[in-house]
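Changelog note: in this version the structure field was regenerated for every chain. One regenerated record is shown below for reference.
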Amino acid sequence: MQSFLSLKTDYSKQALYFLLAIGLGIIILLTDSKFFTATANLFYLFGILLMFLVFPFHSRIKGTESIIKLGLFNIQPAELCKIFVNLALAKYLSQQDTDFSKLKSQLIATGLVLFPALLSRFQSETGLALVYFSFFLVMYREGLPGAVLVIGFSLATLVVATLLLEPDTLAIILTVIAVITIYVLRKQIKKKRRIFFMIAGLWILCVGVQRFAVPFFFDHVLEPYQVKRIYDAIGRDYVPKNQAQAELVLKEEESKSRKAQEAGNYNVRQSKIAIGSGGLFGKGLLKGTQTRYGFVPEQRTDFIFDTIGEGFGFVGSFIFLSLYLVLLLRIVTVAERQRSTFSRAYAYGVAAVIFFHTTINVGMTIGLVPVIGIPLPFVSYGGTSFLTFSVMLFILIRLDADRHMVLR
């Protein structure tokens, strides 16, 4: 009890964050909803400033450099900044002079989202950097052409194909696809020569991404251990291209104990065993052998879904994930009944972030996506994450209370 009151345990710290979230929630619910539209840009600048403060004042914890220690507590500005980005993006989309059908408006909105993502990546927080891409779903709802999402998905497919296939093999496949496309569209090409140049340009772009962009990104942007996680996720062995990369991977492996391993197949393998051993109805709360005896690493944070899967089985996991689905459907329903573009865009931002976090976190535990360190909303241990999701929902509730108003 004394250790709990002295805030020396994880439970006591999380309980304090819970009380803090309730306090902030009460303040938010008592605040005029126009306050959030008026201060959205100021909050965004404040969030960017916090992220810049990470560089001189950060503490390196579990491989990330995005955390600032404040006494007994840690704060992660990249987490909090998701709230500010959501507000700023909603503010920009709701302005009368914003024509989102024009490229200029689309680029400005993209810059608002990608700038903090870039800062997060420089802080060795690749997982959180990827979360910001969920805001593109908000842009799509507000008029971003579907072709942009198709291009993004196609690019992701090309990256995966680059990792799975030999360079020459993939180049031949791309060439065959281009030739077939030209043959099918030969009549249209005779009438409009620019179609041929478009196809040729896309072929050059795809080959360029495959030959140069992807290798550069994996060799000079990502850390070797992050590249290894991606290769592990697609079932291929990562072979370092030089001695320096090999030494970095080896150093990363040797610096982790069995319970803290984040590289390689160990954590995913143990995670699958834990979830699979739960069977249909599970072994009971805190009675699972894999989680109880520490075989699953980081089971309070990144792999907390293993505790649910092993303890409550398939039925419990299904019910648990259904709660997230109900929450997301409810948020979308709230979004669609808003008269204000600001409120609607903000609501879709909340739904997009929760959906991305939940999908990626659960996908990590069953080996569908690489382990990139994304918490499960409202469940994973972490005060900043809990505060972020709580504040986002409280702001949404406050905006919905004034849905009859047109906020700008």
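Spot check on this record: Residues 110 and 235 are 33 Å apart (CA to CA). The radius of gyration is 23 Å.
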